[in-house]
Amino acid sequence: MFGERFGLAERFTAILADTGVSHGLIGPREVPRLWERHVLNCAVVAEAFPLGSRVVDVGSGAGLPGVVLAIVRPDLDVHLVEPMLRRTTWLEGVVAELGLENVTVHRGRAEEFAGVLSAPFVTARAVARLDKLARWCAPLLSTDGTLVAMKGRSAADELEEDRAALVRLGLRTAVVTAHGGELLEEPVLTVDLQFAPKPVRGAVGGGRKKKSPSPREARAKKASKD
To answer: N or C: less crowded end of the chain, CB within 10 Å?
Structure first.
């Protein structure tokens, strides 16, 4: 998975087992299974993103999946969005220690970045149910962008349960994709969502068309200029 960057993955895993635990980002019981349950779990999802993609990781927390994606795919432009100062400070330290030049850390809630930060791909892991996650993440997607939501084995069930709410948000397509089946005992499932773009007020093609002046109004306007 990591090739020549395996050393970086090892260092990140060691950080997770150390300050990741002391900062409350990783539970102590997770340390023995950091590789298979967390690091490799995130790494296999890298195949969802085309070469050179910009990816926003919402609710990045311990850098899962964002930091792992940046390690395994140095071609990606990764943006970590996390509201808690303690966590963003930790993430900035990790990025600096690992020398990840393709990562930018942003402090704030996802909804605060609507109209400020956008990308063709937004991802999240263990953040919220699909309906709530979509409300936060869809405004960050550029046109025809995809929300790649990492979910457990109940991904298909959650999609069907939340489909009505997703449709109200403008859901256009929804696909459950399996990743890493050849490497992991159980593949990682993502729910890949695309939404119809919302019309921008005042933009060409959005909202009501501007009413053309009548001939009488046009003559009156011309006379006032003269």
So the answer is: C
Half-sphere exposure of 109 (CA within 13 A, CB side): 5
Q: What is the pTM of this model?
A: 0.85
Per-residue pLDDT for 31 more than 50? yes
Among 3.40.190.10, 3.40.50.300, 3.40.50.150, 3.30.565.10, name the CATH number for the domain at 3-225. Answer: 3.40.50.150
Backbone angles phi, psi at 148, to 5 degrees: -105, 95
